[in-house]
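Listing 4. Sequential folding, example run.
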Amino acid sequence: MSATTKEAVRENKLIDDILELVHSRSNILLSSHVGPDGDSLGSQIAFSNYLKSMGKNVWLYNQGHIPHYFHGFKDMDSIVVEPDKWTVPPQGFDLVIIFECTSLDRIGDVSALVKDNVDIINIDHHPENSEYGRINYLDPGASSAGEMVYRILKRSGYKIDPETATYLYIAILTDTGRFHFSSTTPECLYAAADLVDCGVNVKELTDQIYFNFTEDQLRFTADIVSRMETHLHGRVCFLTLRDAELKARGLKYGDMEGLVEWTMRIRKVQVGALFKDTRPNFSKISLRSQGNIDVCRLAHKFNGGGHSNAAGCHIEADLETAKKILLEALEELLPDDE
């Protein structure tokens, strides 16, 4: 048996274990990382549709703002982000499924609802996962959690309807940067093609996610980009998103999802970073890179992680101090400019 065949057999056994556990439970909580994105939300809603088709009771709780491009989807009402609205059934949750979280604490305040004796299914495509679940379905080679959920649903025999296909497609589309990142594999493209065959309207969906800014959002984006900072002879680009500026415009961080991608649109840039002051003396940083420059390893130095070309971290300092600290680390990471 080839290594590839052995891996397939192992994965199918793991998925079968997930399906068996899911079938045996009734009250199921779905969650993901703080500040949910297209992959985490799309994966949760798609899996929720599958669970509800079997008559399961499902709760979807997340901490953080929902990206603006999700606001037009009717199923967003099922995702609760206000902690004061999080309720627990009298008999408690008998299963928790967590998507895209390397450790349990990454779900933030939702973790307080997860009792010590409850079984957890951990579905993640990040390489540094701590394997905190009863079942850990981990694949660093997958483009997204959505691709992994797609595999589960296909294995289950569930007929993927156009609505569920749409959320899975969103998960894959957004986590591959519109099929731009190096995580865009033949497998994820096959999955995307099948989802289109299931009824995804590609044009309508792409317009909703990537071409649906309000005028104020676009003007604000232009203002932020106009204040970009370049360092190390143009090989590094920093953007800054300040909380006070957001509040002045009545916007939330989720309304500016994808802003970090602008750092990589300059020809010479090898590493881009978006700095956000999410609370006093705390700077949240989104990182992007080109080629073999591994920003995931960089993120590990600053309480974070992710993928080689797309990662995130935080530095407990104000924005300007955080920029200096990160720039010093980048001077060591990047090869000398020739």
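-- end of first protein; second protein begins --
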Amino acid sequence: MNKFEVGQEIETEVVQISNDTVFIDIGLKSEGFVDKSEFVDENGNLTIKEGDKIKVYFASAKRDEMYFTTRLSADKAAKAGLELLENAYKAGVPVEGKVEKEIKGGFEVKIGTARAFCPYSQMGYKNREEPAAYIGKTETFLITEYKNDGKNIIVSNRRILENQANDAIQKLSEKLTVGTVVKGTVKSLQSYGAFVDVNGFQVLLPISEISHARVSKVEDVLSVGQEIEAKIIKAEWNGDRSKVSVSMKSLEKDPWDEVAEKFPIGTKLEGTIARIAAFGLFVNIAPGIDGLVHISALQDVNDKTNLSKKYKVGDKFEVIVEKIDAEEKRISLTTAGSNDEQDNSANAYFSSHANDDDGETYNPFAALLKK
């Protein structure tokens, strides 16, 4: 019975859940008790299960029963009086209080029989509401100052919410590690990617990680509310500054793995100009596969030619595969036009002399003599 002090915080495991009580392991022959109502959300759903780890505070002992709490409820505070509030202040035990009214600089909060002051800056956290929205609500607070035998009490709701957010992030950091595949819901679209909700935490899906295929506009392939699956490729956990990035592309088959088989050297293709650089044209020949036509392979141009004035992104462009480096993900292309011109010239040359020898095989020396 002397193992715990009032207000002492412990981390323990849920052993059993009954109709109105949660039994916890406290390292003794008997279990500790917590009111089940403390683990029910606003919709009446239970937020814990047997085997979960929870943090609670020692509240009181009656005979062989030891009671713990996640917060000092308004009813308990009313029955216990100021002494328990002072203990809650010293031990950092959260307390429930009803926001009575708005006063100069903040709010008047009733905790049991005591009255406390909560500054505007300490009410709410990230999604802060207008002052009027808090009036009449029962919130959870941390007592930050306790003076003059309880006549001057200052409380903070923000500190509670910050602690809850940090605890949630800590739990997420253990689950959302680099390499983990997660499911999420698209919350918003940006020019640089999309924000996706994963277990209540928003992660970034960069536009470059949506697909191996080139994505010009996020809205062309994603929509708000869409369910996606992605792999975590970056995770920096630092409180409310935590950043996590995911990739859908990582779950796709890399098109470069089979590029040599699909596009042997010498293959003639019709591609699309994807990007124009000073040194040549990048031509898309398949989803996720761009090859370079160097400026030296282009017709009627030189190093001083402004390629952007001569070609346009999106134009069709016939090319021939010249060289492949799958490991470096590079393909060298040449224009099909130059080869076509050579073929056409040869065909025209032979065609023009097809009947010179009355059906016999063309003889260039005979042709010269006829002239």
